[in-house]
Amino acid sequence: MSRRHALLGLLVDRPASGYDLLKLFDTSLAHVWPATQSQLYGELNRLAEAGLVGVTAEGPRRRKEYTVTERGLRELREWLVAPAQRQPRRSELLLKVFFFDLATDEQARAVLAEREELATAYHGRLMELRTELESEDGPLTANGRIALEYGLRRTDMEREWARWAAGQLGEAPSTARRRRSAG
Amino acid sequence: MSRRHALLGLLVDRPASGYDLLKLFDTSLAHVWPATQSQLYGELNRLAEAGLVGVTAEGPRRRKEYTVTERGLRELREWLVAPAQRQPRRSELLLKVFFFDLATDEQARAVLAEREELATAYHGRLMELRTELESEDGPLTANGRIALEYGLRRTDMEREWARWAAGQLGEAPSTARRRRSAG
DNA sequence: GAGGCCATGTAACATGTTACATGATTGT
DNA sequence: ACAATCATGTAACATGTTACATGGCCTC
Questions:
Q1: Among residues A41, B80, B111, B183, which is most buried (max CB within 10 A)?
Q2: Do A111 and B183 touch (CB under 8 A)?
C-alpha cells in the first residue's frame, strides 16, 4: 500500500485536489507508481477519514483541496525508513524465455528483438525526460534524477541482455539447445 | 493472464497433478512467475473446462493428472510469439527515492544500503542456483540459464545503482540537493 | 448555448493473497 | 495409531482496472 504514501508525498510539496494529484501521477509518478482516477479519489477519502490529510480549502466545482496533517507527515516519514518488503517479481518475458524450446529459434529471436526495441525506445524516452529535467530545478527534481538513472540503467541492461540472449540461441544447437520434442 | 501459460508450459514437459505443479512453481518458476496453491487449482479447473488440458489419469488421494491437449499447445505457442504488453512498473524503492528530501541523508543512505545488500544477497542466491543448474541437463535448463542471466544482470545493476545513488546524496548539498522545507 | 475542461464519485469486473477446511495414503 | 505428506478445494479479504455517471464552470 505505497499508493497512499505517494499521495502524501506529493501533498507535502503543496496542497492539491484529487484532480491535481491525478495529473501529477500521470506525469511525475507515471514511471514509478501509476494509479488510476478511481484509486486516487477513494484513497483520498480514506486518508482524510484516517486524519492523515485534511480538506483545507474548497473551490469551484466541488473542488476539495487536501493538505497533509502532522500525523500524515509522521506516517510518511515512518514509511520512508521502513525496511523494504520484497515485491513479487513476475516477468512475462522470462516466462516466455523459459518455454523457448516450444518455438523456433526464429520466433524466439523475434521475441528478444522486440524486447530489445522496447527497451531502447523506453531508454530514449527517459533520456528525453532527463533533458527536460535539466532545465527544471525543484526539490523533487534532484531525487527524480536519481530515480531516472535507475530506469536508464535498467533499460540499458535489458537491451544488452536481449542481444546476448539472442546470441545464445543460435549457439551450439547440438549441445546447449535441444528441441523439447526430442527430449 | 500468463499464469495459465506457465501451467501449460510445465505440463508440456510432462503430465502432472496440481500438487506437482505447485512444487514446480515453488522451484523452477519461483523467480519468474510465483503463484499460490489456490490460484493453481482454480486455474487447472478452468483450463480443463476450456479444453486446453485434460485429465489423463487419476491416482490415489483424488489425484488428477493433467496433460496438455492439442488446443492447449496451440494456445501456448500463440502466446509465446504474441507481442509483449507492457506491464505496469511499480517500484516502492523509487517512490521512496522520490521523497528522499523528507528524510535525512543518513536515513536515505540507509535505505539505499539496504537495497544494495538485498541485491547482493539475491545475486548470491542466483549464483548458487546457477551452480546447481550446471550439473543438470534438461530442455528447460538451457532456457532457465538465459532467464537466470537476466536476474544476475539485474541484481548487479541494482547493486551498482544503489552505490552510485548513495554517492549522489552527499554530493554538493548546496546545488544538487536542497531540503524541501527550505524550498 | 455549446463544447471542453474541471472535478468527483460509483459500479462491475478481474486478479491476487491468506486462511480455512477436508480427507486419503504412506511410512514408522 | 500417529505423524508426515499428498491432494484438492473454498471463503474472506485486499487490490487493481475499466467503464459509467453526474454536474459545475469557463470561454468562445
A1: B111
A2: no
Interface probe, candidates B3, B29, B101, B146, chain A, greatest A C-beta count within 10 A: B146
Q: How far is the CA of B48 from the C1' of C19 (A)?
A: 26
Average pLDDT in the B107-134 region?
95
* Chain A residues touching B116 at Cβ < 8 A: none
The reported pLDDT for the residue numbered B140 is 72
For chains A and B, CB pairs below 8 A equal 202
Q: Domain extents for chain A? A: 2-81, 92-172
Report the range of poorest mean pLDDT among A13-22, A29-38, B128-137: B128-137
pLDDT on residue A85:
84
Q: Given this model, what pLDDT does residue A133 score?
A: 87
Candidates A36, A109, A145, A146: best to mutate against B (most CBs of B within 10 A) is A146
Instruction: Tell if the pTM clears 0.85, that is, is over it.
Output: yes
**Do the Cβ atoms of B81 and A154 come within 8 Å?**
no
Q: What is the pLDDT of residues A138-167, one digit of tens each?
A: 767 889 999 999 999 999 999 999 999 999
Q: Tens of pLDDT along B62-79? A: 999 999 999 999 999 999
Amino acid present at A19? Y
From the number of C-beta atoms within 10 Å of its C-beta (0-12, 13-18, 19+), residue B131 rates as: exposed
Phi, psi (deg, nearest 5) at residue B50: -80, -5
* Inter-residue contact B120 to B112 (CB < 8 Å): no
pLDDT at B174: 44
CATH class assigned to B2-81: mainly alpha
Judge contact between B85 and B103, C-beta under 8 A: no
Contact A94 B165 (CB under 8 A): no
Note the strand D nucleotides within 7 A of protein beta carbons: 6-12, 14-20, 23-26
Cell of A28: 511525475
